[in-house]
Amino acid sequence: MTVTGTGRTEAAPDPALFTAGLSSVAADAKSASAKNAEAMSRITAALARLNVPARDIQTRSLSVNRVDYGPNKGRFEASNTLNVRMRDTARVGEAIAAVTDAGANIVSGPDLSVTDPEKANLSGYDAAYKSARAKAEAYAKAAGLRIARVLAIHDGGQGGYMPQMGAMDARMVAPPPVSVQAEQASAPVMAGTNAGMVTVRVNFALAPK
User: Fold this and answer.
1) Are the C-beta atoms of residues 86 and 52 closer than 8 Å to each other?
2) Candidates 3.90.1150.10, 3.40.640.10, 3.40.50.150, 3.30.70.2970; CATH matching 10-116+158-199
């Protein structure tokens, strides 16, 4: 008889990824790019003051486009966004407030994940096997049989880690006033735990009671 069991796992996320960037508008492409570059320098400097290493900051997108509609029609928009990895999840809220204070008007995230999901899954394998064993015993009992031995155990893999319970929506906003920035600096990001699922398929040999 072959049955499948599942085991739930939970792990505290260790890295957090968020996106920070800036959209700048000027009369010509060169001016828009220069304005954008100046503000992005302030943003990366703010991250450096939080000891975020350069290897954890990666350019996600970079563009310069002519605006063809709206109040800025005929002007040029330069956009630059960065992916920022925070290895200390306790400082994510501080980092988001810092880049916003530095001029970022494009912010999304954080995406909280687990660096080593295989290690996190170890706690679920025991539960998955026990679940399969309990099912097999129930089937065997119903059929008037007993489990004689285990023939094989097949790893069914992991179902993947679910994202955190909530996430900030991507948004493009003007830099907030100082009073709002002060409130943001005191608002923590709650890392919580990420949940996952592992499965196992077990072949049992049955025998008469």
Assistant:
1) yes
2) 3.30.70.2970
Condensed to tens digits (0 to 9), the pLDDT of residues 1-38 reads: 999 999 988 877 788 899 999 999 999 999 999 999 99
Cis peptide bond upstream of 110, omega within 30: yes
pLDDT at 139 (0 to 100): 95
**Per-residue pLDDT reduced to its tens digit, 75-114:** 999 999 999 999 888 888 899 999 999 999 989 888 888 8
Domain ranges within the chain, ordered by starting residue: 10-116+158-199
- What does pTM read for this prediction? 0.64
Tell me how far CA of residue 112 lies from CA of 18, 79, 90, 146, 189, in angstroms: 9, 25, 11, 45, 10
**Residue 57 · residue 44 · CB < 8 Å:** yes
Residues linked to residue 111 through DSSP beta bridges, in sequence order: 17
Residues in the chain: 209
- Among 33-47, 124-138, 147-161, name the one with the lowest average pLDDT: 147-161
Residues 79 and 22 sit within 8 Å (Cβ to Cβ): yes
CB 11 within 8 A of CB 191: no
- Is residue 68 within 8 A of residue 59, CB to CB? The reply is no
What b/e readout covers 174-203, taking b as 16+ CB neighbours within 10 angstroms? eeeeeeeeeeeeeeebebebbbbbbbbebe
